[in-house]
Write a structure and sequence with these properties.
Length: 91
Amino acid sequence: DVSEDNAKLFLQQQLLSAVGYKQEEIDKIDLVSVSNEDFQQLLRDKVAGAMSDNGAKQKLVSMDEIERYLGDGYEFQAVLPNGKAIMKMPF
């Protein structure tokens, strides 16, 4: 059924977006032919990657990187005397 396929495609795109895939990345995935198991693996890989990348939950960044990190979901914490900023992932 076409409407059911469209609904599934929409839901898959929303799930990928929710776990951190950017639209450009989603556009490169052939969601029509990917198996349910492979799709679930895509979700697990992204979540596991996000968790391991943010194990410390904080990053030390230069002042000119603050805006980019805010856009990526980090929260500003403090500016250190050396001019670096501490950014924190909220989860």
